[in-house]
Amino acid sequence: MLVLRGPNGAGKTSLLRLIAGLAEPAGGTLAFEEASLPADTLLGEHVHFIAHQDAIKLHLSVEENLSFWSGFFGGGDVAGAMTAMNLDALGQFQAQRLSAGQKRRLGLARLALVEKPVWLLDEPTVGLDTASQKLLAKMMTRHLDGGGIIIASTHIDLPVKSSDVLDFARLADRAG
Amino acid sequence: MSSIERFANPTRFMRLQTAVQPWVWMITLALFSVGLFLGLTRAPADYQQGETVRIMYVHVPAAWSALMVYTVMAVASIVGIVFRHPLADIAAKAAAPIGAAFCFLALATGSLWGKPMWGTWWVWDARLTSMFVLLLLYLGYMAIWQAIDDPRRASRIAAIVAIVGFINVPIVKFSVDWWYSLHQPASVFRTDGPTIHPSILTPLLIMGLAYSFLFLALHLVAIRSEIGARRIRQTELARTGALQ
Amino acid sequence: MRSAFTSVVVRDFSLAIRQGGSIGTAIGFFLTVIVLLPLGLGPDQQLLQRIAPGALWIALLLSVLLSADRLYQTDHDDGSLEIMALSSTPLEVVVLAKASVHWLTSGLPLAIAAPVFGFLLNLDAALIVPLGIAMVTGSLALSLLASLGAAITVGLRQGGLLVSLLVLPLYVPVMIFGVLASSGAQSGIDNSGTALIILVAIVLAALVVTPFASAAALRSYMR
Asked: How far is B146 from chain A (nearest CA, A)?
């Protein structure tokens, strides 16, 4: 797992979006599984991207939101995803009734719907209480143990041990 | 596509433009002089419309040019999207106001032409209606550039607008012609009848060429100023550290 | 891919029904345009009858256009659009799904309602059915092109004005052949059959152009 650290505006989100394929690089190459990708490929289908927004519809219930993404991805474990983020009790509630932390959990539950090798997480713990952070940590550890990659940007310490840290503040010092 | 690459071509362009510009202006001036002279003095007057038919020498080439410039815009947009040439979207953006001006000129002279004949300041016939829609297409294109701040994003969206609009032009012409043929058998302007006398055709073609060179002259200037504006923006962004 | 298409359709449909009211507002807008006509032109029944088909078409296309204005707004704002773009499903499929739902929930109901409201403009009763057929057919193109306008202007200020300026020129052929197809045998020569065929051709053209152009525009807004 690689952690991106640094102050706001340093470029952590931009890097994540770049890797996902949502932004255009000015140069350089992206390699995945030892094969270099042509300049415009979207890593797309191999990626779970958690942005600042939760990608949930307020007028759909928790279960309907996850069913939608499950259908969209071509099949997924809705029940498992709800359990992973402790949303079982909230299944029938419309997302607009949830608290900010619960909405975040719903957004994160997408990670457990379908297996994808690369996780790009942009400040995943924002709005989460300690118990929820532990749930996220469990998901992340399971993913890493299964051979997955995580690149996550964060302000605070993540509940999972990272193998590498990319500090944007230090990069800026060196460049500047 | 590194930053340096992005500006190598424009620099070469600037040098080329500075060298070529005076010549283009001279040719433009020459062509307009000859064309207007022939059209206003040497060419015959119309037996029905009298001298007022001479407006045709300003109106018709303006209409041709309005269409030609939109084509240039559409082609430049396609080149921009497919080949990512750095000057392509600048060329498209710069061409639009010029084309819109030609379009407006065509409409205004069309109106002036119709007044002595029909007594009204405006008549909806197939040709003028199509020109009117073309003007709207130009305005929409320019509005999109205005509405989006990021030039890269704006150029892509604008390119889509230009291309979709370009596809629409023949369809609109076709449908408008059909509509007015049912509602209005005679057209106001009978410039392209089955035979056009060479003494009318020659000044017309010269004026057409004159307009083209006028477009070229203005286009080169507009591209140059657009490049300048982008450089200023780049410098400002670099200074604030918000380089994209 | 079909699963993705269906998911989007079901989701958008559910949202449209749950959030409700939008078709009511659209019909309200339609009627507002209609009421302005006798107020601006005078209540002369003969005059209104002559302009009825064209006027109903104008009211229809304005209503469809404005009801599609924010079609992509929520997906763009809550980040769903990005996640959909990252999947293996082409964005074009998403565009078609959203445009279809918009047609089913706005375009089609308006196209059916319009001839019914024709009596407000003293529409010749013989024209109600041809008008309905032409409008139902044409409304598909109207919805598609309106969704294209929405994709081009996602999140921009002056949304309604800008989208109108961009889309109304695209509506010109639809309206011309739509009105011609609505006339039944009104004029001496019956053009309406040919016009209807051309209208179908325009719908098919819109069906092809809209997904690709919309997807390209949406991608530009995400990068």
From this structure: 23
